[in-house]
Design brief:
The structure is a homodimer. Chain A is built from 26 helices and 19 strands.
Chain lengths: 695, 695
């Protein structure tokens, strides 16, 4: 059984009136779930029949579904090609989806499962693909085989745009890593892969028109046009659009290595940290001729209707410094650099339009005089999104979904595109808010650890964008996230399995259990703290081979420990099972430093974590001492508490760009030892913080 | 430090006279190693200079080398493009290698490392690539950074053909899985990837000439011609030839699905288990016209000079049963089916020759009248190889290197192409023995577990084919294999990291530690036992999702336990450290069944391992009881021993196609308790096996 009990207890999400709360491991949560009675058994005679419309997308989807189910259950299962009324699962789509997947196509499906069979219907194969993922998530392992609970699900997405941006400009990500991430996206019903294909540090697509873009604008790591075609087809088969982004006029140094004539500042350019900063020159006719040919080529390579031109973070200094550009601005009545960028975007939009593309850009592109069909992607927040909607522009949210900031899943989960300023929009304006995108910015990722930055947290964002707004229970989300996290590893993602090889490489010894224990309870520093700690200029060529590169953004052990401590305190210290687990963890941590020290000493790469390891042991000791007080129902002396809290506070400081994720619950334990103001233990002198006595 | 002490103690390999035994973690062992004094430090100022010949292969190889070193050390390191005398590592090749890599090209290199710098020279980039791998294996992590011991290595391969066959006919293996295996091959200096591209169960390459081959002859899983080109270029960049195999006239049902006219038996064919057996019809002109066009197309797609036509396991019954074929044989004076196959091969060889390809085939193709330039790949053994060599044919060995037989690395390691009948060949005949190939037959592999069947064992075969024949010490081999195994995981191979996700999927619960403990001490049944246990016909579509599919062919824990027991016994039971480790393992196993039982009960997929889990606990208890006798220097009663040995023998029986890899050492412990014939313990009645008293 896939621990459904725990999930059942935790699920308190609100649902459509009259419906029972589903007790199912589904993520994202469907919009309507009606539990029936009994189960549909899955055994050797399981079969699938496609009745009605069928095409290649649908058939390959069914084939993958059967392979997945077969792999999961360990049974040989076959997709039956024949139309059979006796099939266990009958699939029926009304018609095909668009040959190039379109924004806003019907993605809804209905899935009915009874003891005697299952039926999946949808308007088109996109809904069928989603329904099959739901079916797979419903499979339960049990003592006598596999089964699916009887259930009726009517489901459709809340938002039409549910994306994931991957930035391969800074670090090249091989195609197979992208493909496994597409599999992950499909598993949680996301539908847009946004490829940030160029930035200062690299241009990553083969251009036949302008070969110096990829040849000189990269370190040799780029996607061939053949690879892009394969990737787009792979995504299309899974109901996922692929939108390219070529970030201009800023973030474009890689273009200037091969084509310096496009830059606002004369000179030669290299792919290297530092170097001359410049932006594209929007005043030259040749810039637009170049872009026209470029959009023609790339627009054909990427069939999606949307084309992202970046447009963010333009520093106008190169424009200020160029007299020709200043003269141009003067003669064209362009008052400032914002006007010049608007001039650029206006021309660019015409080029895109000529090639049948709709322009997408970051907040900064927004100007009232641009055509209303453009889409604004907001890294600034719901206010910016609402302002755009009021002016008639469509938009989607990425503020709050930046995966590189290392936030816990709950923090991303709390961000809603329709909250804040967006909540008070008119219905018509609200329709312009298309959805959102999780953003995997690439400054600190490598193919080895990227999965661990994206998953499982992105599944929580996927739920925010798919499920009804009312689905907000954090405990339920985490219980289901833990399940989906394993499912994603089965699909080939490496957000868990990347750890051991990396730890071994760092330690250089066979037994890494002590290093693993530490790695399990640390998290990378949050927001932009890692950048702030870089000595000198950030260098994209830095090898990503420190403990911070292994550590998951959110420590599962830390979260588990936190909830054990809550449980223990809430039980008024009577929950002996929780107590035993807390003590076991604390003891492991207390004893860990002495085991880890030899590894730290003999490996250069581990030196930086020595203080962190000591801090963990100190916290373990402090926690155990607190448990002793609590166990004996004895109040601790105030001076002892002050001392222990000081130890804990020291342990909270970042070390090696890492944070210990278990300090806060230990502080709670220490503070809880004050509960008996007339304890039987010896009292000591020393100042006692009265706050600590309240609990 | 990368546990060099252990390796140092274990290294007793024989080397060229006058040389000190190297204390280095190299695999394969170089042919000559001369240790110097001191170390070369690797720090931020490390740089590489290519002096002399340079080309794309060499430059990309250096770029990968620097990236790997950078990743390992956590330091930003750059390949310097400029020719610099001050570079840490100077690389010098005399000229380029052939544009299409050729069998027998010079692969030698010399690597000299001193405290002040390193120099790597080779005739051509192939040697440079090998030397760079040696360099990477020499890197040691230490307390103050990274270093390489001063050393002079002169190295070249013993055999020119060091291959790995991967069979994707039975189960499709995606390109990225092949690519990571190519990385593994390059790391251990293998140089031929042999793709078994077609078999009864699937035809895996796009054919533009005959599209029904891949369209109807596969389940839709095949390599496009674009993918093949990419793969061949990827391998070429790493000094690896790619040889295609299309197995005919047998093993070719997949061809007949689209082109039944090629078969000896009229009818329609499907990709399915069972079904009509037939072979290609060698009596029709159209067969050869087809093959001529086919070889023309595939010969261009695969530029290698060698083309493998299979030729194995022809069952001539379809020929016997076809009157037209019988009439043909009669009119052409072909006395039997062997003659008919020879007739086929003769024609086929002419076609290959016309397209500038050299024929390679399995033992069965060997007939004296074939041209002497063909190559025989022997699955039958050194006798067959020697017989071929005597007739003037070249050959290579695969007997003894079948990875699907689940042998321990030591067993493969002991197989030498030049042993047995081959040892007594003349020098000229010996020259015809080109090397060998490890064979990863595909009946029971999936992309998920294939790496674990290939690695790390194939590294031992690679050493057999590269290193001097005298390199044979098994302890040294295993010590170095453990190191290289981790290195291969760093390269992206998943022979270790596949386990946890698979175990989780089977168990369906978060805590799989008890299942992991069992998985760590089991091995798949050996040779063809898994086939023998299949009920009904073997079905290539069976999902590979049992514990046997997770279990490594050779249990590292089992090997470790075995050596602990040897150490303990050899110390006359005085080695208390070994004793403690033995007791800890035995206790874990004794207690494991009670932890694992709940998981087994609730997961259908695990039911079959219940007896195995019980057996492990019984063995743990028996071993602990034996330790108690040994600890007290007390002889055990004969009846007790008989009873315990019976328990151990029961535990040796295969369960769920798995073997417990720790039974034999436990039996040794039990038998050792007989050592004091006049023990102080109570004596019991019962028969005592006198054999047990001898020890």
């Amino acid at each position: 059984m896939r621990t459904p009990i725990a999930v059942l207890l935790l699920m308190v999400a609100t649902f459509a009136a009259g419906q029972a709360p589903p007790q199912l491991n589904l993520m994202p949560m469907p919009s309507r779930v009606q539990l029936g009675t009994g189960h549909l058994l899955i055994n050797q005679s399981f079969s699938v029949a496609v009745s009605g419309y069928r095409d290649g997308t649908l058939e390959r989807g069914v084939q993958r579904f059967v392979a997945d189910l077969s792999h999961r259950t360990g049974m040989r299962l076959y997709s039956t090609a024949a139309k059979g009324v006796a099939a266990t699962l009958v699939i029926q789509a009304q018609h095909g989806s668009e040959s190039v997947e379109k924004l806003g196509e019907d993605e809804s499906y209905e899935l009915t499962i009874s003891e005697s069979g299952a039926k999946l219907t949808a308007t088109n194969p996109l809904g069928i693909l989603h329904g099959l993922q739901t079916f797979l998530q419903l499979v339960e392992t049990s003592t006598d085989g596999f089964s699916i609970p009887a259930v009726t699900i009517k489901d459709q997405p809340r938002f039409a745009w549910r994306g994931l941006l991957i930035d391969m400009g800074r670090h090249y990500i091989p195609v197979d890593v992208l493909e496994r991430n597409i599999d992950g996206m499909a598993a949680v019903k996301m539908n847009v892969l946004h490829l940030h294909l160029s930035d200062d540090e690299g241009f990553r697509v083969e251009s036949k028109q302008f070969p110096k873009l990829h040849e000189m604008g990269s370190d040799g790591q780029y996607y061939t046009q053949g690879e892009i075609k394969t990737l787009v087809a792979y995504a299309r088969d899974r109901g996922i659009r692929v939108m390219p982004e070529f970030d201009i006029p800023a973030h474009s140094r890689s273009w200037f290595v091969g084509y310096p004539e496009l830059a606002s500042t004369p000179g030669t350019y290299k792919i290297e940290p530092g170097g001359v900063y410049t932006v594209m020159d929007p005043t030259q006719e040749r810039t637009y001729k170049f872009l026209d040919k470029f959009v023609d080529e790339m627009g054909k390579l990427f069939p999606d209707a949307y084309f992202h031109i970046g447009g963010d973070e333009v520093n106008g200094k190169p424009w200020d410094d160029n007299p020709k550009i200043q003269a141009f601005m003067h003669s064209h009545g362009l008052k400032n650099n914002q006007d010049l960028q608007a001039y650029f975007n206006h021309h660019l939009e015409k080029i895109l339009s000529k090639h049948h593309k709709t322009m997408v850009g970051w907040d900064e592109i927004l100007r009232p005089d641009l055509p209303k069909n453009i889409v604004v992607q907001s890294w600034r927040g719901q206010e910016s999104l609402a302002a755009a909607a009021k002016q008639g522009f469509s938009g989607m949210l990425s503020f709050g979904y930046y995966l590189d900031l290392m936030w816990p899943a709950s923090q991303h989960y709390a961000v809603d595109p329709m909250s804040g300023a967006a909540a008070s929009l008119s219905p018509e304006e609200k329709n312009r808010i298309l959805g959102g995108e999780a953003c995997m910015w690439g400054e600190w990722i490598s193919p080895e650890d990227m999965d661990s930055r994206i998953w499982p947290r992105t599944a929580a964002i996927a739920e925010r964008l798919w499920s009804p707004q009312e689905v907000q229970d954090i405990n339920s989300m985490y219980a289901r996230l833990d399940e989906v996290s394993w499912r994603l590893e089965w699909l080939g993602l490496r957000h868990r399995s990347h750890e051991d090889p990396m730890l071994h490489r760092m330690a250089g010894v066979e037994d890494i259990s002590a290093l693993r224990s530490l790695a399990d309870v640390v998290e990378p520093v949050k927001d932009y703290a890692r950048f702030e700690n870089v000595k000198g200029a950030w260098d994209f060529r830095a090898p990503l081979n420190r403990l911070i590169d292994v550590a998951n953004p959110e420590s599962e052990t830390g979260r588990h420990f936190q909830s054990l401590v809550q449980k223990y305190i809430q039980s008024d210290y009577q929950d002996h099972d929780a107590e035993a687990q807390i003590r076991a963890l604390l003891s492991t941590w207390r004893d860990n430093d002495s085991k880890l020290k030899p590894l730290i000493q003999q490996s250069f790469l581990l030196h930086e974590i020595a203080p962190l390891s000591e801090a963990l042991s100190n916290v373990g000791s402090a926690g155990l001492a607190a448990m002793d007080y609590l166990d004996k129902s004895e109040a601790s002396p105030g001076s002892w508490r002050a001392q222990q809290l000081a130890i804990a506070d020291t342990a909270k400081a970042p070390q090696a760009d890492l944070l210990l994720a278990v300090v806060q619950p230990v502080k709670q334990l220490i503070e809880a030892t004050a509960r008996h103001t007339t304890g039987t233990g010896p009292t000591h002198e020393g100042t006692v913080n009265p706050d600590n006595r309240v609990h």
